[in-house]
Structures are given as C-alpha cells and as structure tokens.
Amino acid sequence: MANRTVKDAHSVKGTNPQYLVEKIIRTRIYECRFWKEECFALTAALLVDKAMELKYIGGVFGGNVKPTDFLCLVLKMLQIQPEKDIVVEFIKNEDFKYVRVLGAVYMRLTGTSLDCYKYLEPLYLDYRTIRKMNRSGEFQTIHMDEFIDELLREERVIDIILPRLQKRIVLEDSNELEQRVSPLEEDLEEMDISEDEEAHRSPSPEKHRGKYKDLDKPSNRSPSPKYKRSRSRSPHRRDRHKRKSRSRSRDRHRDKRHRSPGRRHKDDDDRHRKSKKSKRDRHHRDEDRHKDRGDKHRGDKRDKDRSRHKDRHRDHGSKDSQEIHEANETRAKLGLPPLK
Questions:
Q1: Torsion angle in degrees (nearest 10) through CA of 153, 157, 161, 164
Q2: Which backbone phi and psi does 131 adopt, to 5 degrees?
Q3: Spatial contact of 70 and 33, defined as CB atoms under 8 Å apart
Q4: Do 171 and 118 form a contact (C-beta atoms < 8 A)?
Q5: What are the annotated GO cellular component locations (predicted)?
Q6: Residue 102 placed within a domain
C-alpha cells in the first residue's frame, strides 16, 4: 500500500507516473532505508522540509545500485503527484537550490513541452554550483544552468529516461511560444553602444595636460622624504624676482634692437677679416700639399733610375765574367795559362 500511487492521480504520458522510473531502479528505491524511514506517509507540505535537507543530487551509485536521497524524493513526488502551483513554487525558490532542482526535474518528467520551456529556461540565469554524485559514488561540482541544459537536451538524466520534448522552433512557428532572446544580447548591445560613445567622445584638455605632465616626469627618480616639501617664497621676494627677470629681458631686447652702426660695421669688418684669413690659410695648405706631392714624385723617379742603373751594371758584369770563363776553358784545353 505504501508504494502505490494516490487514487486521484492523473496519468502522465499515458501511464502511471511512477512508471517513468525504470522498474529495476524503482525496486531498489522501495528497498532502501531512506524510502522506508523518511518517505513513509509524506505529503506535499512535509516534502518541502525533506527537500530543504538535501546536500547533493544524483541517481544510483555503487556496485549494488543504491539510490540517492534525491532520487527517492523524485519518485515520492511522482507517487503523491502535488499540484502544479506547488511545483512552480519549488522552481521559483531562490533560497534553497536543491529544492529548485527537485521541482525542475519533476516539471521535466510530468509537464508539457510548453511548460518545460516556460518554467525551465529562466533558470539559465542561475549560475550557482551544485554537488552531483556519479555512478562510482564520487562527488563532482556542476552549475545550475548546466544541469537545466541537460534536462532540456539530453535523453537520460540521473538514471531516468526523460520523456520526448517537442522542438522549440515548432512551438514558435505555431505561435504558442515567443522567440527566445538571450540576456547576453542585451549586454553585448550595451557594450557596443558604450564603445561607440567612447570612440566619438573627444578627449578633454585636462587629460592631455595630465599625460603631458606624466611624460615630463623623471621615470626612476623619487623625491626624498626629507626634501619632499618645497620651500615657498615670500610675496616680496617673488615680486623682486619677477621685476629682475622682466628688466633683464627688456635690456636684452633693447641691446638687440638699438645696437650702434659703428659697432655693426666693426663686426662686419671682423667677419670679413676672418674669412680672408681662412681663405689665405687654405691656399697655403694647398700649396704645401702640392709641393710635398712633387717632392715625393721626384724622389720616387730618382730611386727608380738608380735601381735601373744598378741592374744594368750587374747584367754587364755577369756577361763579362761569363766570357772570361769560356776563354779560360779554351786556353786550358790548349795548355795555355788562364786569364786573370
């Protein structure tokens, strides 16, 4: 009796709601301790308290196929079949994330395609992390929006085969569902608008002044804390300094404009004299350079003539010695004394 569906329950997808869970897994749930002790005689009001105590989600785990507490509560909801308003409140609950996941799974199993898209797609904006137990009994961390995406796209979640879901584009073509607009598109449009405004916005002169000052600052130099505060001048000293600088600039300007003509002619004569002297020095340097080149050329020619005369004398001497040697050989054959 404890495992039977309530009498006034409506059939889901043409069958008993509990039959949405496979028989082998359903049998394991009926035999587990949590189902017998915690899920006995639960109502929709008491189910909320049990859902708030959940710490993770999952299907079955271990070698002997043990069901998790989350899976037991899913089957209990299929058994008692709570009203749709209660399930919607589960989904809208923001304080307890596992209560929201429980309501989302039950809505995906029992709700129509239109209800699934209507109530589950807003959960894409929930980025909280939830713990999930895998088949080997180990925990892994996923996000709420990832789990909702699995409910809407996958065929099997937490070891339950999900009913077929109609394509969203079909519902949009039949005007039963509005076209979905991602919230990211609004953020992207705002970013584009802000970038365009920054590009067209003219930079203020204060920014230019600040940049110019930063460039003029020494990079690796920092003021000493001892001399960090600059000594301020008194008003009388500042005025005296301004008057001095103004009078110096005025005198310098007057000297430039009112220079005497005699001084001007003297400067021209000095400039002309210096140019003539530089030309004369340049002429003397050129003459000395040509003279040095001529002396060097004559010396080279003289050396060449000497070497040529020595070579000719050496050749003539070698020719005479060769003739004397031949004559001595001839005289030796005839028995005459050699020449000296």
A1: -20
A2: -95, 140
A3: no
A4: no
A5: spliceosomal complex
A6: yes
